[in-house]
Amino acid sequence: MEFSELARVFQAIEATRRRLEITALLADLFRRAPEDADILPYLLQGRLGPPYATPDLGMDERRIAQALAEATGTEVEEVWRRYGELGDLGLVAEALLPTTGEPVTVRAVFADLRAIAAASGKGAQERKIALFRDLLRRLGARAARYVVRIAQGRLRLQVGDATIVDALAAACDGAPRAPIERAYALSADLGLVARTLLADGPAALARIHPTPGRPVLSALAERLPTPQAVIQKLGRVLAEPKYDGLRLQAHKRAEQVWLFSRRLEDLTHAFPDIARAVRQQVRADEAILDGEAVGYDPRRQRFLPFQQTVRRRRKHGVEAMELLFPLRYYAFDLLYLDGADYTSLPQEERSRRLRDILREQPEGILHVAPQLVTADAAELGRFFDETVGRGLEGLVVKRPDAPYHAGAREFNWVKLKRGYQRALADTFDLVIVGYDRGRGKRARLGIGSLLCAVYDPEQDRFRTVSRVGSGLSDDEWVELRDRLDAVRVDARPGRVESLITPDVWVEPTYVVEVIAAEITRSPLHTCGKVDAQPGFALRFPRVASIRFDRRPEDATTEAEIVRLYSLRA
Ligand code: ATP
Predict the structure, then answer these.
(1) Domains in the chain, CATH or no CATH each
(2) Which pLDDT tens digit goes with each residue over 302-347?
(3) Which distant-in-sequence residues (6+ apart) come within 8 Å of 553 by Cβ?
(4) Which residue in 122, 128, 242, 398 is the catalytic one?
(5) Is the Cβ–Cβ distance between 561 and 454 less than 8 Å?
(6) How far, in Å, from the CA of 386 to the mean position of ligand 1?
(7) φ/ψ bin of 460: left (φ > 0), alpha (ψ from -120 to 50), beta (otherwise)
(8) Is the pTM of this model over 0.70?
């Protein structure tokens, strides 16, 4: 397909907010360009690869503007002047380039952008500018608008993973969604899924399995309030401490190790100590472990708070951080072992095999989460108290016969946390979709309350549930405002449903952990709103932390809020 054709589809997507229309446009796109199925999902999300291997173009605005000036024979000052006027370099490119360009395929644009990203070393910036200039010269106005936005990381078509999955099903004459979802959850690569499906048909999706070097979407936990409720719902259970750190998936193939976050980023560089431990302590040629990295003070034999653990994610000064904040990695699941996909095996068997392949060392970094097997609520309660007494958050309780359902939040795992027994005192992960500038003292900071939303995975929509205006220090508010300004958009993003219009809309990007006292019904919010019925809101919310480790799609779901409300009403 030619890129100008794709640009037309981008424009049509931008012109509608309706999910069904977007799905139909995408299904049609996949049908018309099956040969590009492997790269279209990336481009639709403004990326040059799957989330765990997306190269960065490495060009800032200044250099993009420079390339644009050179490509169009315009003075750089003129490019900046127009940028100031239009507020979007994509629109500037569109205005400066001729309506039609040369025929350039989607694949050629993708390859050029990858080549720009790959340019490194001495003189890389000049080469990047030259390559981008040459690409722009060949493009027509509309194509240039979108290529510039992709280069800037600002395509923002609001096409979520779930929408692409739906579109792929529709493109194959309504193939069932479940095998597509499964393949995506096990590979985290929609390009691979689309190519396999469109080239070889739905049956071929079964070939997609976990593979070292490619993350699997994390299974997530539901919550219940008491040990009694857990035993009543699950019967005999495997209970493990809930470590409050950073979820990490550890992959090993011979001597090579990868560590992936729940956001599917490759964080191997940040945790050389854990990578070493995986190399030394995992007795297998190939394996994928799921687990939690948590800060640990060996002198006091105490776990460190989450905030200290995540400071280890920094890219610089890794070695100093290693000494300052030693980590332990608690493995709690085994998803793949020496060529075999373990995700469909029962939990009990996965846990057993995990113990078999780990060389436990008392002073080592890598440990297996200890497990209590019980069907007795009183015994589970004692284990809970003992675990909380050791400074941990609570328990994750698991169904012995359940598979590992990648990417799903189900009752196969149930978290039981401190404070559940009291009122609500629980936290929710909410997505920031906008903010108000604030009044009085807060006007000085330029930010008052955040407009926050939950996620509806069925519809791929964010619905508002709370305005949150407390919990951070002045400095933290200002820092957050700066981050939000970098993702601000002019109008309500397509995936957001809201009755409130904040002073500033932002692209759903950041997740905040919010503590609230209660869930109430409210006509102001769209979470759980059906027809004329009011929606749901959180009362007395405050920000507990900013969760850079979460994707917007990992946020608390709308269904969870509705269920918690029904439990408490
Ligand atoms: P929370 O904010 O309560 O940690 P969450 O949204 O991070 O919730 P959930 O899936 O709801 O994630 O809760 C389980 C989380 O607990 C996992 O994502 C994982 O990071 C962490 N965890 C710690 N110990 C365990 C364990 N033994 N088994 C499974 N998950 C564990």
Answers:
(1) 3-152 (1.10.3260.10), 220-418 (3.30.470.30), 426-568 (2.40.50.140)
(2) 888 777 776 666 556 666 666 666 899 999 999 999 999 999 999 9
(3) 160, 161, 162, 455, 457
(4) 242
(5) yes
(6) 19
(7) left
(8) yes
